[in-house]
């Protein structure tokens, strides 16, 4: 019995450095469970766990330490690995000497190894005692976190099962005889775009006036004072694609996701004989979301599809930026793909070859983070901080010119009757989580809700269009006018 217990404690001790080094990863995965793919979590977990366990072997077998001391040394290295960015920013704040990665990192490594080697002076018996206590505490914490994850995974699987049970297929019947008369409909969502009158309140660097003039002259009705009723992306999109108001809560994330996947607006377009084309960047940020329900879904540039799986995704970057690897985690391999995708959309939107009318949906992460763009669309240097709200306005200026270019492209590609809707889901949220920095001081709460909302729909009367000031009513108005116009023909 006694030896069995000893074996268990010895086994737990051996896991201790691995549990410590993977703790931030488990913590972030727990907090962002709906957003992080399991594969990404497990890859990072395994790599760090194995490396950390190997450091025990280095101290134990190569440096000939007692096993308990080797575990303590490896644990010290694991702790210091995880708190690197904390000490870096702490030292920067002390402001005693100029602290950057290049001079702090060597000091930190030498210091860590020095402390790790001090374990040599701990008596063997005490070392075993220390390791036993910490191994038991760490294992308990690990079990608690782990069972939370298992519970969430189980609940999600149960919700998916319930949802698949309740689903019934609807047929794609055409209710309007002559579908060739129906206009193409374009629905552009620019994520996080502030209403035109918001940025000038905070900066002189943004001048939305020429954009407003452009859209007005093009024939758009621009709704000033249009507001979202939450700052949750999925909540906003689910409401507009179902013309229905839902309660706003992040706990309902998977409900919104399902409501988008089963959108009544999309079903209606299908019934009217439309082909649905979607450009969707949402799953770049939220890879666990359901696919947009489109006939043609373009989430990556066709020629970039091979590079689609990037090892260093947002989750891994978030965890590794805490560590000495931070220095090499500043380059975001996704930025170039993101930029290429935006230009691809601009160059191809409206050109899809479909037999009948089409509904083209585009959800673009602009001016959303990464705040990587100068106002002319070239890239800011990485050091500027792609999660720094201070760069929101240059991103926004790029959005202003980019959105005009996209609309220009639509008018060229689709010269006949068409409807073009340009909206944002919500305004700039000034988030502080996910590594965001540089929040604009005194940013008004109400300005986070003010959105871009405008529509080009000649032939739909002003009175009807004005209801669209509430974005949830967008497609009630659109279908009402489409049916009205087709009966009058
Ligand atoms: Zn959003």
Number of strands: 7
Q: Which band does the percent of strand residues land in? A: 5-15%
Question: What is the succession of H and E elements?
Answer: HHHHHHEHEHHHEHEHHEHEEHH
CATH architecture of the largest domain: 3-Layer(aba) Sandwich
Radius of gyration: 27 Å
Low-pLDDT runs: 167-175
Reading off the top of the CATH hierarchy, the class of the largest domain is best stated as: Alpha Beta
Distance between the termini: 89 Å
In spatial order, strands of the major sheet run 2-7-6-1-5-3-4
- Give the overall form: elongated
Q: Work out the helix count.
A: 16
Average pLDDT for all residues: 88
Main pleated-sheet profile:
7 strands, mixed
Helix % is 40-55%
Bound molecules: zinc ion
Structural category: alpha/beta
Number of domains: 2
Can you tell me the CATH topology of the largest domain?
Alkaline Phosphatase, subunit A
Write the layout of secondary structure elements.
Elements: H1 2-31, H2 38-62, H3 67-82, H4 84-94, H5 101-118, H6 124-165, E1 184-190, H7 209-218, E2 221-222, H8 233-240, H9 253-261, H10 264-271, E3 275-280, H11 282-285, E4 296-298, H12 314-320, H13 334-348, E5 358-364, H14 392-413, E6 418-423, E7 453-456, H15 462-466, H16 474-488
Parallel strand pairs: 1-5, 1-6, 3-4, 3-5
Antiparallel strand pairs: 2-7, 6-7
Helix pairs in contact: 1-2, 1-3, 1-6, 1-12, 2-3, 3-5, 3-6, 8-9, 13-14
Zinc ion binds at residues 191-192, 233, 425-426.
